[in-house]
Amino acid sequence: MTDRLLLRPDAVAALLDVSPSLVYRWCRRGIIPTVRIPGCRSVRVPAYALETWLREHVHLSEESGTPARRDRRCA
After folding, report:
1. How far is it, in rounded angstroms, from Cα 51 to Cα 5?
2. Within a domain: residue 42?
3. Is residue 1 part of a domain?
4. Which of 18, 40, 43, 74 suits 31 as a labelling partner, its CA being 20 to 30 A distant?
5. Is the dihedral of CA 43, 48, 52, 54 positive or negative?
6. How many angstroms separate the CA atoms of 6 and 18, rounded?
7. Count of structural domains, the chain
8. Domain span including residue 43
9. What is the pLDDT along the chain (75 residues), one digit of tens a residue?
């Protein structure tokens, strides 16, 4: 996915093709795993944790191998 160990929420948003505000909301709610950088208010998403989270939460369509749409809203 990426060669970086820790990703900023805006980088996660770009990878997932969602808005940065949605990723920040997921971070605040604990939906995706984060780590807090000591001495500042910044949070980062560990790349390995994001990959694990995607495997657990994204369901691929059988035919195309692309993410399948769900009827319910995300967070």
Report:
1. 11
2. yes
3. no
4. 40
5. positive
6. 18
7. 1
8. 6-57
9. 556 799 999 999 999 999 999 999 999 999 999 999 888 888 999 999 999 998 888 776 555 555 555 545 554
